[in-house]
Design a protein that fits this description.
mainly alpha
Length: about 260
């Protein structure tokens, strides 16, 4: 078999392994999935009227639902990949990675299996949270089919970028608890972005924190695509952030994985 065929075969095997682990131990995925759903329900039903009025939309909860759902979807991706960091760290600390290094398999297939499996789980989580959003009143009637396709492509690209970062975090963590803590920024950053309120409504000293980070342009781009409004310069900023994070996470993870074990 050619090296490409071996890589594809071994990566497929590792992907099946990770998907089986996710199916056998669903508690971590469910816990991470419940967080964005609870945030969605909390901000819509508890704060929705007040937040909508504060943003100039009047006491109309539906206006705030349209605003907050794109941010919740991005938060869902960030939360899901935390499980990837924990899974990778668990493999590293239990010694299975050391075992894989001694086997006649394509070295990159171990990482590819984790990454592809995490992206699939992220997309599935986004779909589930999106169904909850539709059930409570979110509508995307002004978006075209092309904009919907671009929105799914953007979320998949964000999931890929964050997954590679999470893989690197998991590989350098000494245990699963440290991996979970190291990946915490992937949950915190959406909270201090434009997910819940516009950047212009934030205090002046806080705006740079919300504006100059990867989640805000990604959320603004997704919001524009789903609602059929303009995205301005946020589109290329979101893609640039995703490509940079993907490259960083890939080379970081590969360097750690190729390092001789101590």
């Amino acid at each position: 078999m050619s090296s490409l065929s071996l890589a594809v075969r071994d990566s497929s095997t590792m992907l099946r392994r990770n998907l089986l682990h996710a199916r056998r131990y669903p508690s971590l995925t469910l816990n991470l999935l419940l967080t964005p759903i609870m945030m969605l329900l909390l901000f819509v039903y508890i704060f929705g009227d007040v937040m909508s009025a504060g943003m100039g939309g009047g006491a109309d909860r539906s206006a705030y639902i349209a605003y907050v759902v794109p941010g919740i979807l991005m938060m869902t991706i960030g939360g899901t990949v935390v499980g990837t960091a924990v899974s990778v760290s668990n493999d590293m600390t239990e010694g299975i990675i050391a075992r894989f290094r001694t086997m006649a398999i394509h070295r990159g297939s171990v990482l590819v299996g984790h990454v592809v499996g995490s992206v699939i789980q992220s997309v599935a989580s986004v779909v589930l949270v999106g169904l909850v959003a539709v059930a409570i009143g979110f509508r995307s009637t002004d978006a075209t089919a092309l904009e919907w396709l671009a929105a799914f492509g953007l979320m998949a690209l964000v999931a890929l970028a964050l997954t590679w970062i999470a893989v690197g975090m998991g590989m350098v963590s000494p245990n699963v608890e440290a991996a979970s803590n190291n990946a915490l920024p992937l949950i915190v950053l959406p909270l201090i972005s434009s997910a819940f309120v516009p950047v212009d409504a934030m205090p002046g000293w806080f705006r740079p924190i919300a504006e100059y980070q990867p989640f805000t342009p990604a959320i603004e781009t997704l919001r524009g695509l789903l609602l059929g409004t303009g995205i301005g310069h946020n589109g290329w900023l979101a893609v640039a952030w995703c490509l940079a994070l993907t490259a960083l996470g890939y080379f970081w993870s590969k360097a750690v994985f190729d390092r001789d074990p101590k």
